[in-house]
Amino acid sequence: MLDNVLKWSGMAFVIAGALCTSFRIDPLNIILLNLGALVYMLWALRIREMNLVIVNAVLLAIYAVGLMFSPG
Q1: Range of the domain at 15
Q2: pTM value?
């Protein structure tokens, strides 16, 4: 049950972040993408998929840097 909640919540956050990016809603887009990457990373840790953990950890780091240097 928790795995499904994490998986689908992560997907929703990533899609919402991408939508905000397409409409140039800053910094909400980066916040949502960070949240999506974090939730997906937690899900990947639970299911022991290390490739997904690494991808989402790198994305989380990239988005975090973007959030620190975003105007506003």
Answers
A1: 2-68
A2: 0.86
